[in-house]
Design goal:
The structure is a homodimer of 514-residue chains. Chain A has 514 residues and is of the alpha/beta class. Helix content of chain A is 25%, strand content 21%. The two termini of chain A are 23 Å apart.
């Protein structure tokens, strides 16, 4: 296989599965060019009614054929029923080599493994978690998977790199025209933005709901004018697993310390003093604790953020309601309080990956955040970050919004020095999900390292009482405790590409020797 | 010139200005096909800042060249300053043969006539009112104008028939990212939906505002991710002429009677008894009176509309607040109370021409209305309607949403039997704006005629005490009073095409002999 070295030194094949690849050339080196893809032109004369009597009828109306691509959103997360319902029906129809292109898959989608083994699914383009990632690592898919960030997925669909033949949109509330959102009903998930690209660009757009309401259902983040078919099912998902009743803060003293350091580093670097202060945080245990510390510091300093970016949680919603945040610009609700907030608080704004994350747009919201706090599996001495594989080489996570969020003014990676008995800071990450040039600060419980490229932050943090160290020091501390991890053994075959948000390939994942 | 007869018998040239034309083939005969146009792919790396120091700088940043197409929206109506500001600057740059493609032009845009005479503007694609229509009728433009409905304009842009090189969006409120809406500021106009297509498809998108606010400005009907340049001007328009302080009901007894008949025909035809009753009405004097009578009847019958479609006015807003209407689905605010309503009432929904009117979509909102009431300049014995020219042949009006709104379940044309001394009901309309097959009922103060195609409505109206007549009877009554109008005298040259909402040509307008 002919290979080429990309801008961060990873070897990338010239082509794979008959498709030429573009090697990663630097985080902001791509300047677009060409034109977006044009979806098919339909006419209202053919849409007298869109209501199909069953999911089966809707699937049949899509005229699926071997080798076609279908897609799903992941707002119902581990509570989603629809992905499996559709793929089981596709399997029953005897279809083969279907490409599954979800915005993410979860452990609940394990039944798709058998469709991979039976040749119903050729491979996955999007995001895989757990058993599907494991199947990928084992080389079970007949073609090479492509992992994309949320913004990268929108870009790929918009630019025509990822053509979706039929999308199946789980809609917690929809009307017969196909206007849909995620705000109410038994499968309420709050925001529904991850299916916007699919609704705009897929050849066939199916809205599947367990909560059909009279026209007009508003807001219509999914617009009826883009929808071909509407059908009802008994249940879209398991409410208990769609959103948590409550999201829990970490109780680990080390992780609490990391969260506190992250909040303090934002304060001490002067980021909060900027007039348009804003930040992004997620829903992991460290992120929740980070929000708690942020709230304390902001209260103390009398600072208000002009926006915060979710995934949203009760912790962020509380800050909105306390007026510590002017707006939440959201892409995912993680718990019931955040679903309620997006439903009733006009300052809790539903976004989508075009607006928030798309690299091939005229700016986006993530890049406007002054600080972002993100977890990772590994970080290396060049500040390259891995969120996809573990040090043992298993592909177990999707990229999510990671590579997109890293474009904030100050991107902070929060990791414990060790995970289990393995160092999180390594000489060179197993897989590069985002290049080191996008990472500004590493926060561990043992110390904080600023990327040497950010001389401004280093300068600002002089005099801070935070435990500032070099990343090499932190690496040595980790190795002293944990030693060096054994390198995973790989087969030759590349089983997945890590596509950067601009459409270039930043790294590959190889099949594991087991 | 080689001509072909279209489906309603009008002669259409095979081609004009080197472009092949598609003759109108019937209101619902077009079924789409092909793909929408793809806008250019840009990258966020090139959008570190979009703020330009002046309108001049923003215009220069668009790299306009001779023959290019520029566009504007018409939400500021006769109060708009921006159209003239931009065209004067384009003229100063010595550019020639510019195509102006606004969603509409108003008397305030009369200064563009001199740019037409000087060759700065080659022609207009969109909508013309008053002096610009007059210039067109006189053959002053070097190329053939194209008149499109609001939905037809969206379709043409989306399908690539109308390529816009640069759009200048007058934004009553905007942030530095380009997020914009029309809800507040000195030039508030409420809804801003008519510029959505331009923002999505133009090569260069300029947001011009007199009310720059900090990011994030929400709602963002114009999304920053589509905006190239943002600049400030002293004033976008004259508030007194952007929206009326109050819109006035007609005081003419004949017009009041027409309005009352229109409301009663909706009641008597059983349309209000449908469970999902809804209707569309505009802002003319008859329409306002119609709303008054509708409110009375609905109150009396205890009926609620599940939506009404604007242009919105105080009369419609009052019905929303009285709960006679569940939602207003709006595209244009005509007075201050409706601007306030769209700003504060979540049931007053801002729409755009894609969602409301686009024929090349998977259904739209206008077709879901159970009844629509529209004015016209002429209607003929085939129920063909003219809203563009007068009986004397002068092109004086744009199509507006007319051809799109006609797709309601029951389209009612309200006209006085005579206008001045000229019969409104004619043997054959001067210009066909919408074909007779789309028109269901004609209401005049002298009687009501149902299109014979609508046997169901004729059946439903049996027993009504409304003065039902045939359209031929009404025509005879009109002729008896006014006689037959003299036919206008035309030159050979076709100066404008009336494009139907599906992209076919339904009629032409010829240069007047004067």
């Amino acid at each position: 296989m002919k290979m080429i070295r990309n801008a961060i030194g990873r070897m990338i094949p010239y082509e794979i599965d008959g498709k030429k690849l573009k090697p990663f050339g630097g985080a902001h080196e791509d300047h677009g060019g060409g034109r977006k893809v044009g979806p098919p032109i339909r006419a209202i004369a053919d849409y007298k009614t869109k209501l199909r009597s069953s999911l089966d009828e809707a699937i049949d109306a899509c005229n699926l054929k071997d080798g076609m691509t279908v897609s799903f959103h992941h707002h119902l997360r581990n509570g989603d029923y629809l992905g499996n319902m559709v793929m089981d029906r596709i399997a029953k129809r005897g279809l083969k080599d279907i490409v599954v292109a979800p915005s993410a898959l979860f452990p609940v989608h394990e039944p798709m493994v058998k469709h991979i083994e039976n040749g119903v699914i050729s491979h996955i383009e999007g995001s895989m978690n757990g058993s599907l990632g494991r199947a990928c690592s084992l080389g079970k898919m007949s073609k090479t998977c492509v992992l994309r960030s949320h913004g990268g997925r929108y870009r790929a669909i918009q630019d025509g790199d990822l053509h979706i033949d039929a999308t199946f949109i789980a809609a917690p509330v929809a009307d017969p025209h196909g206007n849909a959102n995620g705000r109410s009903g038994p499968s309420a998930c709050g925001v529904l933005g991850y299916s916007v690209a699919d609704s705009l660009y897929a050849d066939s757009v199916v809205v599947v709901t367990d909560n059909l309401v009279p026209f007009p259902n508003y807001p219509w983040i999914i617009r009826g004018g883009n929808v071909d078919h509407v059908c009802q099912v008994e249940r879209l998902g398991d409410p208990e697993k769609i959103v948590s009743g409550t999201t829990r803060i970490t109780r680990s003293p080390a992780r609490l310390l990391i969260a506190e350091y992250a909040a303090r580093v934002i304060r001490d670097a002067g980021i909060m003093d900027e007039p348009d202060f804003s930040f992004q945080a997620g829903a992991g245990g460290i992120s929740l604790a980070f929000l708690k510390y942020m709230a304390e510091i902001m209260r103390e300093k009398g600072v208000k953020a002009n926006f915060a970016r979710g995934g949203s949680t009760k912790f962020m919603v509380d800050m909105l309601e306390e007026d510590l945040i002017e707006y939440i610009l959201d892409l995912q609700c993680f718990d019931i309080p955040s679903v309620e907030s997006v439903r009733r608080n006009p300052r809790h704004i539903e976004s989508d990956p075009f607006t928030s994350y798309n690299y091939h747009a005229k700016g986006n919201l993530a890049t406007r955040a002054k600080a972002a706090v993100l977890g990772a599996t590994e970080i290396d001495l060049d500040f390259n970050v891995n969120v996809n594989t573990h040090s043992d080489g298993w592909l177990l996570h999707g990229i999510g919004g990671f590579a997109d969020v890293c474009d904030s003014s100050c991107t902070i990676i929060t990791v414990p020095l060790l995970r289990g008995r393995v160092a999180s800071i390594v000489d060179s990450v197993t897989t590069v999900s985002s290049p080191g040039e996008m990472i500004d600060i590493l926060v561990t419980e043992q110390g904080i390292a600023v990327n040497p490229r950010r001389e401004d932050l280093i300068e600002n943090l002089k005099g801070s009482d935070l435990p500032l160290k070099s990343i090499e020091e932190l690496r040595r501390m980790a190795v002293n405790i944990a030693g060096r991890a054994e390198k995973p053994q790989y087969e030759d075959r590349i089983v997945a590409l890590i596509e950067y948000r601009d459409g270039t390939v930043i790294d590959t994942v190889r099949q594991l020797k087991v």
